[in-house]
Amino acid sequence: MMTASLTMAIFLLLLTPGPTNTLLAVGGASAGFRRSLPLILAENLGYMVTIVPLVAFAGPFLDGHPVAASALKLCSAVWVTLLALKLWVTPLGEAGETGLVTFRQVFVTTMLNPKALIFGIVLLPNGEFLQTLPRLVVFAGIVAVVAAFWLSAGASILRLASRRFPSLFCRVAAAFLMVFALSLAGSSFGLI
After folding, report:
1. Percent of the chain with pLDDT over 90
2. Domain ranges of the chain
3. What is the CA radius of gyration of the chain?
4. Three-state secondary structure readout of the chain
5. Any transmembrane segments, and where (predicted)?
6. pLDDT > 70: what percent of the chain?
7. Contact present, 39 and 146 (Cβ < 8 Å)
8. Residues 29, 121: contact at Cβ < 8 Å?
9. Which residue has the higher pLDDT, 43 or 82?
10. Cβ 26 vs Cβ 173: under 8 Å
C-alpha cells in the first residue's frame, strides 16, 4: 500500500496550480459545483490513460529517449495554448448551462499534464501492474478530493469575481494557462 509520505507527496503535487486545476476552477465558476462534478471523472480518466501505460511499459522508454519526453511536453504546451485562446475570446456570459469547460478539455489536458509523467514514472511504480493497482485506486481517490477542492474554489470564490468582471475573469484564467504553456514549451526545448 502507500506510505503516508507518498500519499502526501501525491496530494501536494495534485494541489499545485496547473492547467487542469485552472480548468476545474473555471468550470466551477462558470457552471457551479454540482454541474461540474463530471469533470472529476474526466481528470481521473485523463490521469489513468497516461499513468497506466507509463507504469506498464513507457517509463523505461522515456528514460532512454529524452526527445520523446520533450515532444510530449511540447504537445501539452500546444494544447494548453489552444485552451488559453478559447478562454480569451469566450465571454463568461456565453458559457451556457454546461459552463466554459468541457469533459473533453479536462480529460485531454490531464492526459497531457506533465504531472501525469511524474506520477507514472516516479511516484506510483512498484513492480508489476497488479501490484500497482491498489496505489492507483488510492491515487484516484486523492484526485477526486483535490478536484472537488478546485471545483468548489471556482464555484464559490471565483464565481463572485466572474460575475463582477466576466471578461477579465476569463482573460486572467487564459493568462495563467499561457504561463503554463510557455513553461512547458521552454522545458521541452531545455530552456527552463
Report:
1. 29
2. 4-188
3. 17
4. CCCHHHHHHHHHHHHCCCHHHHHHHHHHHHHCHHHHCHHHHHHHHHHHHHHHHHHHHHHHHHHHCHHHHHHHHHHHHHHHHHHHHHHHHCCHHHCCCCCCCCHHHHHHHHHCCHHHHHHHHHHCCCCCHHHHHHHHHHHHHHHHHHHHHHHHHHHHHHHHHHHHCHHHHHHHHHHHHHHHHHHHHHHHCCCC
5. 40-59, 71-89, 101-124, 136-160, 172-191
6. 85
7. no
8. no
9. 43
10. yes
Question: What length is written for the chain?
Answer: 192
Cβ neighbours around 30 below 10 Å, total: 29
Q: How far apart are CA 102 and CA 106, in angstroms?
A: 6
Of 75, 72, 69, 101, the residue nearest 174 (C-alpha)? 101
Is a pLDDT exceeding 90 seen at residue 40? yes
Among the listed ranges 13-17, 83-87, 149-153, which one has the minimum average pLDDT value? 83-87
The residues near 52 (Cβ < 8 Å, ≥ 6 apart) are 120, 129, 136
What pLDDT does residue 81 have? 84
Amino acid at 22: T
In this structure, which amino acid lies at residue 30? S
Digit-coded pLDDT (tens) for 88-142: 876 655 555 556 789 999 999 999 888 888 888 777 876 677 778 888 999 999 9
Confidence of residue 36 (pLDDT cuts 50, 70, 90): very high
